[in-house]
Amino acid sequence: MESARLLVRKMDGSGSMVAGARSLTLCVYSPRGTFTVETSGRIRVSNPSVLVNLLQALLAIILGNIVYFLLLPSLPPAARHHPFRLDLGTVLDFWFCLVIYGVIRTARKWR
Q: Which of 30, 100, 29 lies closest to 63, judged by CA?
């Protein structure tokens, strides 16, 4: 199976990498060769649905965590999150956020 690497660089006019530069170079390195795309000017997201998706995801994360922490006292010890570990509590918290995100998306489609 072929693998490709993706490199995105912000460049100024002299070719050195800087933050907030006006051009963006996108290079995809693959076994068959290199594909490069360069853009000039600021890259903007013109689709307002990106902001709506971000707000929906943020709301789902906040509500999912509220539900998880409200149910935390009644959860068995194995389902409680322990800091800095991937455990059943983390998976359960993620599941609450995912379900709430699905409910939000479904409710918006029904409108």
A: 100
**What is the residue type of 64?**
G
- Counted residue by residue, the chain has a size of 111
What SS3 state is found at 73?
A: helix
Task: Write the secondary structure of 8-70 as one string of H (helix), E (strand) and C (coil).
Answer: EEEECCCCCECCCCCEEEEEEEECCEEEEEEEECCCCCCCCHHHHHHHHHHHHHHHHHHHHHH
Sequential pLDDT tens for the chain (111 residues):
444 454 444 444 454 444 454 555 555 555 666 555 555 555 555 577 888 899 999 999 999 999 999 999 999 998 888 888 889 999 999 999 999 999 999 998 887
Q: What are the backbone angles phi and psi of residue 22, rounded to the nearest 5°?
A: -90, -10
Rg (CA), the chain: 21
> Quick check: 21 and 8 in contact, CB under 8 A?
no
- 8 Å CB contact between 55 and 62: no
